[in-house]
Amino acid sequence: MDREPTAFGDAGVTRTFWLIVGGALLIRLWGIHYGLPYVYWIDEYHEVMRAMELGSGEFNFGRTGKGGFYFLLFFEFGLYFVALKLAGVVSTVQEFAEAFVRDPSAFYLMGRVTAAVFGCATVAGAGLVASRAFGTRAGLLAAIFVAVNVLHVDLSHRVGVDVPMTLFATLALCFALRIAKEGLRKDYLLGGLCAALATTTKLPGILVLVPLVIAHAYSAARAEHRPIRWLASSDFWLAAAVFIVVLVLSNPGILLHFDPMSFYSAPGGDAIDGDDIAGEAIAPATRPNLFTYYLGVLLSSMGWPLFVVSLLGAGYAAWKRRPADVLLLSYALVHYLAIAGTSSDVLFYPRYTLPIIVVLAILAGRAVVEVAGTGARSRWTSAVATMMLIAWPLSVAVANTHALTQTDTRTLAKGWFDAHVPAGSKVLIEGGKIAASRLSVPLADTRESLDRRIAYWKLQEPKQAKYLEIMRRVHRGGGYELEFMQIGSIADFSAYRDRGIEYVVVRPDYFIGSRRARGDGSRLIEAMRTDPDVKMIKRFDAGSHGSLGPAIEIYRIDPGITHVR
Predict the structure, then answer these.
(1) Which residues in the chain land under pLDDT 50?
(2) Cis amide prior to 267 (ω within 30 degrees)
(3) What is the pLDDT of residue 560?
(4) Is residue 323 part of a domain?
(5) What pLDDT does 50 receive?
(6) Whole-model pTM above 0.85?
């Protein structure tokens, strides 16, 4: 049955809505210290370092697929610099940069809190869209379903662009509903603004233009001379102008580097510290069918009861085909086809489904309300059904968030390594251009090793040398002679041994299972495990004491060594 959509007006309903939003914020703030001062989520450092680049006077015009969010981080870091300067902690920009390299925890915490607020706002936005489309009860349920979504909770802990992009796209959907119903100029302008912010934050945000254009078609259909109204609408062209101007001003590189087929491919451009291995965290032995892969992501994120209800809600929407139904379904469908049809052969991530999750949560909220019906028992029916639907995702989200409060295996491995391995030892480890990979154990170079890297990179890439020079100034002593290997170019084990390597630190599961290693990773692990002169002296497993992170193995090349416990 259809009901007249309403906004949150009743005081009790409003309190309930804000309790849901407040709870969503709390679970997204819990565990945001994860890993610090080390950063194990690759995308986080890309956004933070891009903001730091902007602070140093540089602008990366080539990295157009992801932007916008780092402007906000740049503003926050600027305020932090002013606060530190007023407090007498730093006096120059150079000292500020040194503080970042010495311990970046405060910078990442600012970004993570901002991401959590964006995630919380998306919960509110989903509720607002559902309430305008299908009524206040549907809005409350949609907000609950997004609030406890496993994937959305997880990503709202991280500095990244997918959660902010999803927020702006959700707000654009809200204005699309208003355009379809009333067609006021302010709704056109705000819809174009939100679409531009979604696009500049992450390029796939441009897909929200599909429901906005459809909404304009509904608005034009109400007027006389409909074809003329569709093309001659000043509101439509003003909204288009707002979209283009905001997008170009916030992401000027898009004029030179726009590639519509790069929506879901590898990001371009390295950040300051040169860790150029973003995306290695996911490179399975075989590429799955992405159409079924992303359905599986939705299922695992929502739990099968809520996922089934959301699909029924989508089917019901396809049957009713009201303007709100068409707008929501069109966006979810075009986004699904985009992520399943254009994702890179190597890079495909669950986070690409966030906008679809919001739409399905809205349609699921509407479906529950429709089944519960009206009457004295309908609220109790809805409440019981909701508790059953969120039991699984809520329990998983809480368990996953609690795990963020535990020590990562890589942090444990670093502590053990520093305590048991002599400083200055020559160590083979995954690395980028100038530092150990953020996906592996965060071991530090010796001062002498940094000096050699600085001399090399001054001739190759001065930007990398500048960062290394900061690392050299804040060096605390100790460290190791690190030699870096990359998963796509692993040499024969004998070559490493001939170069005097004494210790090897690896993520065995990734080395064995990665398609990017082309079998070289497996051969390296097998060579070490079967060589009588090599001993595995320590292993750290994920899940030990509730810890996150990959399995880590540490080997020593020495025929006389005994196993260390």
Answers:
(1) 1-4, 6, 266-270, 274, 276-283, 562-565
(2) no
(3) 54
(4) no
(5) 86
(6) yes
In a domain, 334, yes or no: no
Q: What is the distance between the alpha carbons of residues 382 and 87, in angstroms, rounded to a whole number?
A: 53
Q: List pLDDT tens digits, range 320-371.
A: 999 999 999 999 999 999 998 875 555 678 999 999 999 999 999 999 999 8
CA-based end-to-end distance of the chain: 66
Q: Locate 340 and state its tokens.
A: 């399943």
Residue 123 and residue 146 in contact, taking contact as beta carbons nearer than 8 Å: yes
Question: What's the total number of domains in the chain?
Answer: 3
Structure-block tokens of residue 124: 């509110």
- For residue range 429-475, list pLDDT tens digits in order: 998 888 898 899 999 999 999 999 999 988 888 888 888 999 999 99
d(CA 305, CA 50): 41
| Structure confidence at residue 281 (pLDDT) | 44
Q: What pLDDT sits at residue 24? A: 97
**Residue (of 445, 414, 109) closest to 273 by Cα position:** 445
In a domain, 370, yes or no: no
Same domain? For 62 and 175 the reply is no
Within 8 A by CB and 6+ apart from 405, the residues are 30, 31, 33, 34
Specify the pLDDT at position 269: 45
Judgement on whether residues 519 and 421 belong to the same structural domain of the protein: yes
Residue 8 lies in a domain: no
Exposed e or buried b per residue across 451-477, where buried means at least 16 C-beta atoms within 10 angstroms of its C-beta? eebbeebeeeeebbbbbbbbbbeebee
pLDDT, residue 92, reads 92
Q: What is the 3-state secondary structure (H, E, C) of 426-448?
A: EEEEEECCCCECCCCCCCCECHH
How are beta strands 503-506 and 481-485 bridged, if at all? Answer: unpaired
- What kind and span of H or E run contains 141? helix 136-147
For residue 507, the domain's CATH number is 3.40.190
Point out the domain boundary residue: 257, 280, 314.
257
The domain containing residue 181 runs over which residues? 163-257
Residue 324 corresponds to which tokens in the numbers above? 């709100």
The residue among 165, 171, 214 whose CA lies nearest residue 353 is 165
Convert 73-133 into a string of H (helix), E (strand) and C (coil).
Answer: HHHHHHHHHHHHHHCCCCCCHHHHHHHHHHCCHHHHHHHHHHHHHHHHHHHHHHHHHHHHH
Query: What confidence score (pLDDT) does residue 564 get?
Result: 45
